[in-house]
Amino acid sequence: MNDTGQPLLLSSVRNALRILQAFTTEHPERGVRELAKELQLSKSTVQRLVDTLTSEGFLVQNESTRKYRLGVPVLTLSRVVTTHLEIHQEALPHLQHLVAITNETALLSVLEGTRSVYLHKVEPKRSVRIYTEIGGRNPLYCTASGKALLAYQDQEFIERVMEEGLIPYTSRTITDPDTLRRHLSDIRAKGYAVSKGEYIDEEEIHSIAAPVRDYTGRVFAAVTITGPVYRLRPAMIEDYADKLTKEALEISKRIGYSGHRK
Predict the structure, then answer these.
(1) How many CA within 13 A on the CB side of residue 47?
(2) CA–CA separation, 139 vs 120, rounded Å?
(3) Which of 18, 21, 70, 210 is most buried, most CB within 10 Å of its CB?
(4) Three-state SS for 223?
(5) Dmax of the chain from CA atoms?
């Protein structure tokens, strides 16, 4: 923060973003001199930023024209944004259907970094509701949605999550790495995850979550049913899990998943 209480902004980052935004469908290739003139920056500044963006793959130089175009990482980021927008829209009717057939809260979460983030929530017309914050970031190892996401990531990612620390949020939180590894293996075998009071203060909350795959087959989201233990009884979990996995698969298909698992 500066003396006026405003956040300090890095001009180099801002200018790098301005360079990326200068590439459009009308101008897919841009030269350094052209960018410098349009953005009113010095040629040396633009060249330095372009060199950095090129080294990271965000720009690619055309050897014939010596001009630059956007690289594959930008396309990848674009696809991530598009997929998130698609799933937000495509998942809603399925969340609503889950609420209708279970009379419990249904949630959509996505993987961001080493956390899961609630993207969507549909609640039943009940007097007792489950508090969840849209946009809230939650641990992967002790929530149903988080475990449904974590179980299908590569082993290096799983180990990194465990290295960050398995904090005991409640008495039921899994804090032993070997136990968690076995638990994640069981989730992959069953196709869904269950959390029984492992994260939030209210230990009598149960949740069931199933993975959602993108067009490449990568698990990047999860659909969850959550409610108090006296409603989500153990005898109901298998039945609800079957309904949940079917809806998760339908959402995956609607955003391009064809059956190939990455």
Answers:
(1) 5
(2) 17
(3) 210
(4) strand
(5) 69
* Gap between the Cα atoms of 94 and 77, Å rounded: 26
In percent, the amount of the chain with pLDDT more than 90 equals: 49
3-state DSSP call for residue 166?
A: coil
Distance CA 50, CA 141 (A): 40
Using an 8 Å Cβ cutoff, are 238 and 119 in contact?
no
Provide the sign of the torsion angle of the four alpha carbons 75, 77, 80, 83, taken in this order. Answer: negative
Distance CA(98)–CA(220), nearest Å, equals 20
Which of 72, 38, 6, 62 minimizes the C-alpha distance to 15?
A: 38
- What are the tokens at 6? 């405003």
pLDDT single digits (tens) 41-66: 999 999 999 999 999 889 999 888 89
Could you tell me if 124 and 105 are in contact, meaning their C-beta atoms sit under 8 angstroms apart?
A: yes
**Dihedral (C-alpha) 148, 149, 155, 158: value to the nearest 10 degrees?**
-100
